[in-house]
Amino acid sequence: MVERLSAEARKAALWELAGWSETSGREAIAKTFVFKDFNEAFGFMARAALVAEKSDHHPEWKNVYKTVEVVLSTHDVGGVTKRDIDLAKAMNAIARQLGVS
Amino acid sequence: MVERLSAEARKAALWELAGWSETSGREAIAKTFVFKDFNEAFGFMARAALVAEKSDHHPEWKNVYKTVEVVLSTHDVGGVTKRDIDLAKAMNAIARQLGVS
């Protein structure tokens, strides 16, 4: 099982993750991505879904037209782990390719 | 512009839409689909996204692993229209093909 990150480790990881922040009320990290339109938003989701499925670690996410709100946490440990950080990095990389930071 | 359905017309339409109900607090219809796993849940979303994009009418939806919560309304008219009913029917048909009702 992956290790739950301490508050300090979480903060250090977030420091290098553009646009991600801690959520209030639970141990998780979140980011809202805003794309050009639905085509790009869902394109992002499709690519991120493949990454998530391959690593067997899935996001909570909400899509409204061109916006995708993502929350990541590792349910098994009730907090944020390296798996969340890795998925967040992958999502940032996919968004960057679509011209969104 | 499509016409906003009256409360009566909404209820009549919902009568034929398995699993959909009115939301509280706003004029919209909602349904939570529960699939076998993420693969099926996102497969449903991918197919529904193509329908939505083709008809230029998009859902608000949230996905957590095998669950997809959908809310439909027509923002232009601040209520539910035939476009929402049509998208809801299409989503039910896609889910049915995946063995979910």
From TrEMBL, chains A, B:
Record keywords, A-Z: Lyase
Catalysis: reaction(s): (4aS,6R)-4a-hydroxy-L-erythro-5,6,7,8-tetrahydrobiopterin = (6R)-L-erythro-6,7-dihydrobiopterin + H2O
GO terms, molecular function: 4-alpha-hydroxytetrahydrobiopterin dehydratase activity
GO-annotated biological processes: tetrahydrobiopterin biosynthetic process
Entry-linked Pfam families: Pterin_4a
EC number: 4.2.1.96
NCBIfam families: PRK00823.1-2, PRK00823.1-3
Classification via HAMAP family: Pterin_4_alpha
Family according to the record: Belongs to the pterin-4-alpha-carbinolamine dehydratase family.
Name of protein: Putative pterin-4-alpha-carbinolamine dehydratase
